[in-house]
């Protein structure tokens, strides 16, 4: 079991978001931890800045949420993904336009996030969120 530190972002009297540090492209980024998101999603703009769009596979699924009912989506096989000290290899993520989230964060003077860690990771790796200790615990299945 690996404990990963979380940060609590106050959305100025409009709730809170949990942020976690992730490492992708050998760079550190922040991601939102979202128990309501079914799948882990990365921002298309940030991903294309590092790999271009030729590695993205168009998805026939229509993504909902994020303030829209139909958003073009892609998938990408992430070769190496680190959440805190928790390593994943060849993990598939959805890739969407997250500019609306990052625009809202910019208005709060918060740096953009690379994406959203969703229920796919939390379920598969038995995620436990401890708000008192501000940690996320993940464990590898054996």
UniProtKB/TrEMBL annotation:
UniProt keyword list: Hydrolase
The keyword NAD appears for this protein: no
Listed EC numbers: 3.4.23.-
Organism: Olivibacter oleidegradans
UniProt name for this protein: Retropepsin-like aspartic protease
GO molecular function term, any single one: hydrolase activity
One Pfam family from the record: Asp_protease_2
Enzyme category, top tier: hydrolase
Highest taxon, organism lineage: Bacteria
């Amino acid at each position: 079991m690996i404990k990963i530190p979380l940060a609590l972002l106050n959305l100025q009297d409009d709730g809170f978001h949990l942020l976690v540090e992730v490492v992708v492209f050998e760079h550190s980024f922040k991601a939102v931890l979202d128990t309501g998101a079914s799948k882990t999603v990365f921002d298309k703009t940030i991903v294309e800045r590092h790999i271009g769009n030729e590695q993205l596979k168009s998805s026939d699924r229509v993504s909902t949420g994020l303030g829209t009912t139909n958003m073009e989506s892609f998938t990408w096989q992430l070769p190496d993904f680190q959440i805190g000290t928790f390593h994943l290899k060849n993990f598939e993520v959805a890739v969407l336009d997250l500019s609306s989230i990052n625009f809202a964060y910019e208005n709060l003077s918060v740096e953009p996030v690379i994406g959203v860690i969703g229920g796919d990771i939390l379920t598969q790796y038995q995620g436990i969120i401890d708000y008192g200790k501000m940690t996320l615990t993940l464990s590898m299945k054996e």
